[in-house]
Structure formats: C-alpha cells, structure tokens
Amino acid sequence: MTGRLLRLVPPGTIPVGIGLAVVGLAAYVHLALAGHNLDAADYSSLSVLWSVVFTLGIGVFFPVEQEVARLVAARRTRGLPPGPVLARGAAVAAIVLGLLLLLTIGTADLLTDRLFDGDPTMVPALGGALAALAVAHTTRGVLSGLRRFGWYGTQLGLDGGLRIGLVAALAVTGVDSPVAYALVLVVAPLAAVALTAVPVARTIGRGPAVPWPPLIRGLTLLTISSLLAQVVVNVGVINVRLLDPTDVATAGALLSALVLVRIPLFVFGSMQAALLPGLSTAAATGDEPAFRALLRRSLAVVTALGALGGILAALLGPWLVRALFDTPDVLGHGDFAWLSVATLAYLWAMVLGQALLARDRHHAQALAWTVGVAALAVATLPPLPVALRVELGYTVGSVVAAAVMLALLRRRRTPPPAPPAAAPIPATTSGGAP
C-alpha cells in the first residue's frame, strides 16, 4: 500500500512535505514558547512582526522563487546552465529587498509606535528577517528548477530545526526579550541556506543571459497576486493593532488562533507542488476533461481538509491556544468557526488561482485577489468588536476572491496557451505562519 501511494505522488513531494512539516512544527514551537515567556505586550509585538514578515516577505520573494524555478527548469531541458537565472533572480531579490529596507527605515518611528509598542529594536529585526527570506527563496528557486527536491526539503528542515533549537535555548535560559525571539527568523533561514549552498554554488556557469522584459512582466503579476493573497491571510493581526492599539491581548491570541486553523494550508503546500504542472499540462494539450477532473479532485481534497480542521478548531481551539500558547482567554468557539470558514475559502482560492495560472491567466488571478482585498477592507469597516471585524474581513476577502476566480475560470479562452516549461514548484507560502 505504501509503495503504491508513493508512486501516485510526483517526485519531490515526500522530501518537500517532510521539510514543510518541520517548518510548520517550528512555527508552533516558536510561538508557543514565546507565548509562555513573553508578557502580553511583548508577545503582541512579536505577533505583529511575524505577520508583517510573512505578509511582505512571502508576498514579494516567493514569486522570485517561482520564476527562478520556472526559468531554471526551461534551461535545464536545453542543457543550459542556470547561473544566469540565479544572477537575474538574485538581482531582482536584492532590488526588492532594498526598497523594503528603505521603506522600513523611512517608517521606523511609525512602526515603533504603532506596531511594536515603542520598542525600536524590533525594526532592525524586521529588516533582517526580510533579508533572510530574500536569500532563502532565491536559492530554493534554483533547487526547485533543478529538481533537487532532496536538498530543497533539507533546507526547509534545517530552517525549521534551527528555529526549534534556538527558541528552546531562549526559553530554557529564561530570555524574555521579543527581539531575541524575532532574531530567530533571521539566523535560522540564513544558516539553512549556508548549509545547503553546495548544490546551488555548483550551478554557476556561463550561458545566454535571461532577457529582462519577460522576467519582469511575469514577476510583476505573480508578485501582485502573491502579495495580495498574503494580505488576505495575514493582515488580521496587523489590523488589530491599527484598529485598537491598546488591545494587545487580541493581537497575540489571534495569531495563535490563526496558526491552529491554518494547519490545512501546510498539507496543501505539499500538494501544490504537483497541482500546477498537472493543470498546465492538461490546459496546454486542450484536455478539458482531465483539467476539470484534476481541479474537482483538488477542490474536494482541500474541502475535506478545511472541513475537518475547521470542526476540530471550533471545538478545541479556545482550549488549545490557552494550553499551547498561554494566550489570554479572549477568543471563543465562534471566533474559531469564523477563522475556519475563512481558511476553507482561502484554500479554494489557492486551488482556483493555480487553475488560472495553468491557463496563462495571470491577470485574472491578480484581479481576483485585488477584489478580495477590497472586500476585506469593506468588511472590516463596520463598528463591531475588533476580533469580529478582522475575522469577517478574512472570511469575506477569501470568499470573494474564490468566487471571482471561479467566475473568471468559467470564461473559457481560446486558443489554449503554449505549453509552459515548468517544474513542480514547492509552495512555501506558509513557511512561517501556516
């Protein structure tokens, strides 16, 4: 039975899935130990930094990984070295990182006062965490494009393992500084990259340069979609501090709750590695029955995952966040129900977004996430309790994005796009907070 199951999954799914599992475990351990060692205000600051890092960082650097992987895979089929792709990808990542750091420095006082409870040392920690993500995602793109999924999973596993070890050391020694727990997000990914640098370094080689225009065009659309998707899933914690800066308890409790209800996103992360290539192949060959069948199966899987996870979260969530993260008792069963419904809708949007990309409709995916973020903003406006406002925003934003994608997907476009040269691209959008 095990051998048959392994033959059903594409190469690379198992090592990537193991790596993602370790990263997911690290997220829980990181936040749980921080929650038990920091006071409410400091844990709230760490929660906001976490949300900013994995909204901005994943939103802008995961598309670099995707595009680098796609281009490396295309050159690999022609026997060309991936060095020029790595150079272009690193240049793009460096430029984007530079812009983010300039923005961070320019708004340091505002960030300190509004998001970090007056602690200015959290700002450089934020910049360092963004830099670490830039390096990690660029190198993972090379490993993915070369189909070196063993090394890819190893880098994820090392990142997660180092986070667990470092946070455990902080907890055992009684460290109660939020900056120390934030710096783990800097040290662990950079160390993991260094320890898996050999296969990436071997890719350096001469060859035809990668043209800038198609690279920038593809990255722009992917970045818009990715960043907006991260806003929908992560902005709630930030909104709590913006809507009510004095409510430090809800911000920390909400992040802990989101970590629990988004467990199905980790499972989808492994599945996504095979989803886009499968859909792309069916779309490119005009095999509409196969396309629809794979799409239906994928939606059925994420629906089952989301429903099961949602039921467990709604029943056990309030107790789990108190037991695991030592968070204040401010969220009830209804809060977890809302968050679970939102996560299920978000999973639908992720699957439907892959279907749009497979049909070369990057603009449609970006439009859907734009409408979803606008709906989130509108849903957050009514004068309701802060927690309910952000929960409604997450739910409405996810549902609207999925609905728009479904409507756009039904609008068939002919002729079918040319076959893309894509490798299975592991999804690490939940590399920090699931």
From TrEMBL:
Q: Which InterPro entries match?
A: Poly_Biosynth_Transport (IPR050833)
- The keyword Transcription belongs to this UniProt entry's keyword annotation: no
**Spans of biased composition, class Low complexity?**
424-434
Question: Per its UniProt record, what PANTHER family does this chain match?
Answer: O-ANTIGEN TRANSPORTER-RELATED, PST FAMILY PREDICTED COLANIC ACID TRANSPORTER
Cell compartments where the protein resides: Cell membrane
Membrane-protein topology: Multi-pass membrane protein
Residue ranges spanning the membrane: these are 12-31, 43-64, 85-105, 125-143, 155-173, 179-198, 219-242, 248-268, 299-321, 336-357, 366-386, 392-409
Source species, domain of life? Bacteria
Predominant location of this chain?
A: membrane
Instruction: Write out the entry's keywords from A to Z.
Output: Cell membrane, Membrane, Transmembrane, Transmembrane helix
Positions of the UniProt region annotated as Disordered: 415-434
What is the name listed in the Swiss-Prot or TrEMBL entry for this protein? Membrane protein
